[in-house]
Amino acid sequence: MKHNSFILLCLLLAFSLPAFAQDPAAPVKPLTGNFGLGFAITGGNTDSSSFNLAYEATYDPKTRNIFKTKGMYLRTSANDETITDLLRLNFRDDYLLTKRVSVYGDFAYLRDPFKSISYLLNPNGGLGFRAYTSDRTAFTLSGGAGGVWEKNEGYDVRSSATLNAGQSYSYKLSDTAKITQNLTGMWKTKELADALYHFDIALVTQIVKKIDIKLEFLDEYKNRTLPGIKKNDTAFITSFLYKF
User: Fold this and answer.
1) Considering just the CA atoms, what is the radius of gyration of the chain in Å?
2) Is there a contact between 204 and 180 (Cβ–Cβ < 8 Å)?
């Protein structure tokens, strides 16, 4: 009996050793993102080579709350004269109600003196919907309402309630390359034709472990502008990203 018990104990230890030998799972990083630096070729109100800085960050502790922020600064000079000086910032917090539905709060800031926008502030909130998610693909929609305060050069601050909508898509081509695309719209309720649209699409691919290269096309369209200012501005940007 003792001999049988000894054999049983040995067998249990033999089967248990591989489990103890396995390396512990790497902890999930709650904060991820990147910093970018690059150049651009712009068209629209300005046509010139440009310098840009950008960042993206996501804080996801794997609870119901996900915080994201991103920003871009684009500056262009020609003949020692600044002709583009654009700053765009965005902060968004999503609280997951279910695996697909979230309630969100968002704050957007835009400064573009060459569109005569000293500043545009747009806090808003609403519902987000994960229409499709998989290991490679993510497609989300969002819609809500908020307010806007816009200051144009030479004019008083104008305010209005807003309607907001957005769409986001990403697809992993491989473990080291992906495509991203975003579209947002903001409509002032005082005059729905006074709208601001933003579109971007990008290809991101890894060069080395911590460095990516990003090829991005941006399109900013404002339906109501001051006389002499074009409604549409585009930019093609190449950036090098450092991931953290």
Assistant:
1) 24
2) yes
Contact 201, 214 (CB under 8 A): no
| Residue range of the domain that includes 141 | 30-243
pLDDT at residue 25, as a whole number: 55
Q: What is the pTM of this model?
A: 0.84
Q: How far is it, in rounded angstroms, from Cα 5 to Cα 141? A: 62
Residue 16 lies in a domain: no
Residue 131 within any structural domain of the chain: yes
Has residue 91 been placed in a domain?
yes
Q: What is the DSSP letter of 113?
A: G
Instruction: Compute the distance between CA of residue 168 and CA of residue 64 in angstroms, rounded to an integer.
Output: 20
| pLDDT surpassing 70 at residue 11 | no
* Residue 204 domain-assigned (yes or no): yes
CATH number at residue 128: 2.40.160.40
pLDDT in tens, 182-217: 999 999 999 999 999 999 999 999 999 999 999 999
